[in-house]
Design goal:
Length: 394
């Protein structure tokens, strides 16, 4: 057992303690249960001891010198109170400070996965994984300052759109953190970051380019060198102006032949209807339907749907030499063609699904004749280029 002595523990008295042949404990005269253990090696540790409901408990507070004697005395007094209440003498470990990486994971799980469409979710992941986490992932939320956001934005200045997107996502993350009480109000570091002026990318297909894509699809079809569902998907995108996800998630139950509409149940702007024109019907007629599979555009695996067109579209671009044309440009080109045919902006907006759910709800059972006619003229015009000989009147 170590030797026991008592004295008033101060910095001077503790510094003066010398090791003997054995360990020794020196107890404080002012606070019963607070002491210093001096090992035979010369090491000195502040300790605390008291009796509680479970009996005598002793704990080490820390090495002398790490904190002042007075700081250890205050900690000892708190530890004695905990022991007498039957609790652990050591203070509870503080919860680790949440980091930007923690917030990102929570954002993706509780916000993006629950509320965002696949394309939006992909944009979140690109910004988070590609830019935000490499720059700020290990930083505690409380330590992220406005200059961190400004530096991130500046580092991406060569790609203004990506820079703006990263700041938008980071700002959204901190807005969520405030609502989740992970940071106090007013802690968003992106508030004063001025977005770069990004030039909108506009690329519209010409009649010749429509024809080149149509010829390439026909060649792939004849040679059976591309998945039939991918060929059909690209044709439907060009003939309807729909978004990729709207076409890829299409089910046979969405096709209403009697009303001549396609009912999109989960469009970006909510449920909406797309006119089923003659050329669109021709493409759908050419798709082999498989019993028990709800998807119009089947995937390579049993009971699956086609989930991505990127690889197929790259092959189309290579075959046509249109290396700067994105798949989404087919949607822009549909709108451009409709404008060229004299359709009004409100009609085009509805054809593209730009209206809100409340605006499209009035057409629950019937699409306006103007929209049907506009879709027929636009789709028929494009079909004459990409499906020569197969295009039918709506």
């Amino acid at each position: 057992m170590p030797k026991r002595s008592t004295l008033r523990l101060t910095k001077r008295s503790v510094d003066a303690l010398r090791p003997g042949g054995k360990d020794a404990i020196f107890w404080d005269r002012d606070l019963a249960g607070f002491g210093v253990r001096v090992h035979a090696t010369g090491r000195k540790l502040c300790i605390v001891q008291s009796r509680g409901p479970a009996g005598l408990k002793r704990a080490t507070l820390g090495p002398v010198g790490d904190r002042t004697v007075e700081e250890y005395r205050r900690e000892a007094a708190a530890s004695i109170d905990r022991i007498k209440r039957g609790e652990d003498p050591r203070p509870p470990e503080p919860a680790p400070e949440p980091t930007v990486a923690d917030l990102a994971a929570l954002c993706l799980k509780d916000h993006v996965a629950a509320r965002c469409k696949p394309a939006t979710a992909e944009n979140y992941r690109k910004s988070i994984d590609g830019h935000i986490l490499p720059a700020l992932g290990s930083k505690a939320l409380k330590d992220v300052a406005p200059e961190d956001a400004a530096n991130l934005h500046h580092a991406l200045r060569a790609t203004p759109a990506a820079a703006n997107q990263a700041i938008w996502v980071l700002s959204k993350m901190f807005s969520l953190a405030e609502s989740w009480e992970m940071v106090p109000p007013g802690r968003n570091p992106c508030r004063h970051v001025r977005h770069y002026r990004a030039t909108p990318r506009e690329r519209f297909l010409t009649p010749d380019e429509f024809q080149r894509i149509g010829d390439a699809l026909k060649t792939f079809e004849t040679k059976r060198s591309m998945q039939p569902s991918a060929i059909a998907a690209i044709r439907l995108l060009m003939l309807t102006g729909c978004r990729s996800d709207e076409i890829l998630t299409l089910q046979w139950d969405d096709i209403d032949r009697a009303a001549r509409v396609i009912r999109l149940r989960d469009s970006k702007t909510g449920p909406r209807m797309v006119p089923l024109t003659g050329p669109v019907g021709k493409v759908l007629d050419g798709i082999e339907r498989e019993d028990g599979v709800p998807w119009v555009l089947r995937g390579a695996q049993p009971n699956s749907r086609l989930s991505c067109l990127s690889w197929h579209w790259r092959r189309v671009r290579t075959a046509t030499g249109l290396h700067d044309v994105r798949l989404h440009d087919c949607r822009h080109s549909y709108a451009s063609r409709a404008l060229a045919l004299g359709e009004g902006l409100p009609v085009i907006g509805r054809l593209l699904g730009h209206a809100r759910v409340g605006t499209t709800a009035k057409y629950a059972h019937l699409v306006r004749d103007a929209e049907k006619a506009a879709a027929a003229r636009t789709g028929g015009s494009i079909a004459a280029w990409i499906m020569p000989g197969d295009a039918e009147a709506a």
